[in-house]
Amino acid sequence: MSTYTLTYFNGRGRGELTRLILVSAAVQFEDVRVTWPDDWPGTAQADSPLGQLPYLTIDGIKITQSLAIARLVAKRFNLAGSDDLEQAKTDAVVDTITDLQNAFYLVAFKDEPDALIAKFIAEDANTHLERIEKIVTLYGTEGYSVGSSLKWSDLHLFDITSTFLALDVNILDKYPRIQAVRRTVESNDKIQAYLKDRPETSF
């Protein structure tokens, strides 16, 4: 049986999707949480294949790039789609959600970001959420972003929209299909148990 070690900062960020996939698949893994500035950059950066986080170590082999990691474990544990067409749909949903994530990070990690974040929530976020609502309506059924079973796209949607709900509790009011996917993920027993014990972090 393979062993899995995820190395990422002590936060959700670009590592949480892989955590959620492994949790939902009931896969044991070591969750190495790097702290700044104690462990980073230092030896933690030197140990990373590209000098960045996250990376996943599988049986001693280090895999880098967050979406490559998440896609790999999703495929291994049957959360990527039942055939190549469903996998393509799932990838498309993941990419659409990642567009929102990337756009938000461009403002969230700037110096004095509060005004930029407020502007993003009021304006840009809804453009992205409309696109996500459209694609999950196109490819999914009620409660699922693709098909009629849990995919890694559902977990990605849950994770990223959780960040925005923390900033504006009403931001998803116009998006019933997104809300339905969130309810599906929230009702998963393994995810519930993980979220109950997950460390509180700033990102």
UniProtKB/TrEMBL annotation:
Q: Which domain of life is it from?
A: Eukaryota
Q: Where is the GST C-terminal domain?
A: 83-203
| Stored SUPFAM superfamilies | GST C-terminal domain-like, Thioredoxin-like
Enzyme Commission number: 2.5.1.18
The record's section on InterPro entries has: Glutathione-S-Trfase_C-like (IPR010987), Glutathione-S-Trfase_C_sf (IPR036282), Glutathione_S-Trfase (IPR040079), Glutathione_S-Trfase_N (IPR004045), GST_C (IPR004046), GST_superfamily (IPR050213), Thioredoxin-like_sf (IPR036249)
Coiled coil ranges (UniProt) are none
Any GO MF annotation of the entry: glutathione transferase activity
Q: Looking at the keywords, is Nucleotide-binding present?
A: no
Q: Which GO terms describe its biological process?
A: glutathione metabolic process
- Which transformation does this protein catalyse, written as a reaction? RX + glutathione = an S-substituted glutathione + a halide anion + H(+)
| Family annotation (Pfam families) | GST_C_3, GST_N
Q: Where is the GST N-terminal domain?
A: 2-81
Keyword list (alphabetical) reads:
Eye lens protein, Transferase
Enzyme class label: transferase
Q: Which family does it belong to?
A: Belongs to the GST superfamily.
What's this protein's name? Answer: glutathione transferase
What is the native source organism of this protein? Brachionus calyciflorus
